Amino acid sequence: MDAELNALSLAVGAALANWKLMLACAESCTGGWVCEVVTATAGSSDWFERGFVTYSNMAKQEMLGVSAETLANHGAVSEETARAMALGALANSAAQVALAITGIAGPGGGSPGKPVGTVCFAWCRGSQSIISETQHFAGEREAIRRQAVIHSLNGLLALLNGAKTVP
């Protein structure tokens, strides 16, 4: 793992340990990369509870409780779906904090309204405090996915530090 991802993992771990919180991750386009990054840190079992890789819509419904209506009305790549994924990760784990990522990493799958590089995020600390946003990343598939991992961890740090929005 490179230095930037390692530093983010250490910072996330320190913040979660400080607050005595456990993290759950719900990932789609990143395919478990966030879980890989955070579990690369020794001692992560003290603050990482579990991860969900829900690549298909069926997996989002079955594992996280994302409603068919949300998927039909907003699509898998939407803030509404990301929020439902994050809340589902909390509901289906013993974690108190969750993050979710769903997007289009490419090279195909984009549309004029949601081009390749569109990634939706959600972070929550308990079911009452949830933040979501959409980012548009440039580059090839791996670069988009990597940017999404970094952004999700930075967003989590912001949430843990009391931010109401993500920088």
Describe the structure.
This protein has 167 residues and is an alpha/beta fold. It has six helices and five strands; from the N terminus they run αβαβαααβββα. The protein has helices spanning 3-19, 33-39, 57-64, 68-74, 79-91, 141-160; strands spanning 23-27, 48-53, 97-103, 118-125, 129-136. It has a five-stranded mixed beta sheet with strand order 2-1-3-4-5, sandwiched between helices. Helix 1 (3-19) packs parallel to helix 6 (141-160).
Count of DSSP E strands?
Answer: 5
CATH architecture of the domain at 1-6 and 22-99 and 123-130 and 146-162: Alpha-Beta Complex
Strand fraction equals: 15-25%
CATH topology-level fold name of the domain at 1-6 and 22-99 and 123-130 and 146-162 = Maf protein
Order of helices and strands: HEHEHHHEEEH
| Cα shape | globular
Biggest β-sheet: strands ordered side by side in the sheet: 2-1-3-4-5
Cα Rg: 15 Å
Give the N-to-C terminal Cα separation. Answer: 24 Å
Spans of 5+ residues with little confidence (pLDDT < 50)?
A: none
The profile of the biggest β sheet is: 5 strands, mixed
Structural class designation = alpha/beta
The CATH superfamily of the domain at 1-6 and 22-99 and 123-130 and 146-162 bears the name CinA-like
